[in-house]
Model the fold of this input.
Amino acid sequence: MILIILFFTFCCCRVSGVIYQLNDTEYIKMPPVFHLDPYELCIQQTGGVYCMVDFDLVASNDSQLLNMIHEYSERKETHFNHSRLHYGICLNKSCTDLNPNTTDSKDLNLIIEKCLNTTFWKEYKLNIKINEDVICHNKDPIYHIESGDIAIAIICVCLLIINLTVSVYDLVIVKNNDEGIKWLLCFSIKRNWVKLTDGTRNNIENKINSFKSFNGMKVIIICLVITIHSLLPFGSFVDNTHYIETIFSEIQYHLLIDGTVVIQSFFMISGCLLSYNLQISSEKNNLTWKMIPKGILLRWLRLTPPYAVVLAITTTGLRFAGTGPLWQKMIGQEISDCRRDGWQNMLYINNYFDNTRCMAHTWYLAADMQLFILGIVILVLTRNDLQKKVVLSVIFVISLFIAPLHTYFQDLYAHVTITPEVAREYFVKDPTFNNSYKRGHTNITCYILGLTLGILIYKLQQKQLNIKRYKKYKYLVWATIPMMVIIILCSSLFYLVGVMPHVIIRAIYAGTYRTVIGFLLFIFMLAMVFKLENVYRAILEWNGWTSTVRVSYCAYVLHLMLVQILTYSRTTLNHVTIPQAITTSVGSIVISYLVAIPLWLLVESPTSQLIKILASYDNRKNKSHL
Done:
């Protein structure tokens, strides 16, 4: 890795015609990227019409200002596109001389374009060109209740009634004994609450209780993911864009900016638990090809109910959850995309479709499902340890070339780069995110490492490994976290002012980055399972994680919807400060987990228990036929 970084520094080329920095005096000469006219004052007045418009700056003659804007915007890694502006316009205030009393989108485009041209020529000697239809509305309701809204509302109410009815049945009739109808009691809120709050109880069987540290890892990583996602809206409609752009030159912030690689921990954990559980299962039952469709179906049933509920709410009730100048533009697009593309999410193939805002963060669920299918096929169809080693080794070696080939032939960044414009669009239009980050096949490396780790842990436990002989390696384990931090910070080299890494260097880094992180995670997780040290493990095995981890999946599924509600309901430009960013991220984490609790109690816990009952019934039925 160090050699790559050194080679990187000598193989960069400066991009000509790019302005990397501007002082405040020069910066304020440019028109602001974002602007919002007062929203409430506009909407409440008689005939008030408020429009959101995106437009490009143009000039009929050579303009020194426009040339500076284009050259400054060329630094896409750290700068906003100052040649494409995003404004909220009150037509009654800003375009009074043009009598904008029309509902035709083409006429509105012409009206606003003429209006803004007058303003921009007067202030900047520039013209504007609107390339997309404007989005306008008045004080009348934008959305109306439809049959789909009613249907989803009825389903949600019925689900609540079932849970409440069964809870009364449990409290009044069954009470504290287990004589009730087993499948019906899955919907008891009382029993599910006990399961949730029992911090000493572990979901993992006693035989594999050493995986308890995974609880802490999952919760911490999900909190980091929520933090990153809660800060993404800070790149949209802010009044201090220059401040945001300067953050990219301060290395301490790159732990978040370049920390997207932490999601590989989930792939490692998922692969590890899959292979380990199959090894445990093989002690009692032979692994046959029939386990493949059964395992896929059970996983689909396990993941889908809370996911489907959030998707249904997104396509229906979400549009009534807020209002404001940004609401229809940002939330309206997500609702439209979910209505069009929601079937992709339910089939877990949405990570292979681009340019959609529908629950963009759930690319991980799709990739994980695809890798789960790959993992269970490999582990079930390989008959012995030698076959497993050969197949896993071959796939691992092939996977090392996938990301570099994507990077080289598609001229991508070495890793997902959170630029101001990418953050504003939630990555959906970023080529690196779409082609090298969210696909299932580009994340195979760490998943294969996870499968290997699960097999290794099982074998070492079978041999009753004497861990005391390896206590001297605890210092290596302690070093893994600082090493991962250093590697993440090394990615900030791709933001260096004045340099652009050659595509070959980016390709090499793309193939090395996640692999090195994967091996460090491999060492770390192996040490946690076998209790090689007592510093990190004491934190990760804290009993408080046990309850929190149970609702973490629900928190992950719905957190982005909550973040967007809080963000796009505002009616003024946001002013970004570090204290505000900290408050926002902490608040997003707390709200996400609080809202996740009822979703877990009413949906995830009941359905997961029903699946276990059905699976156990099917196993008993199969044994009776033997």
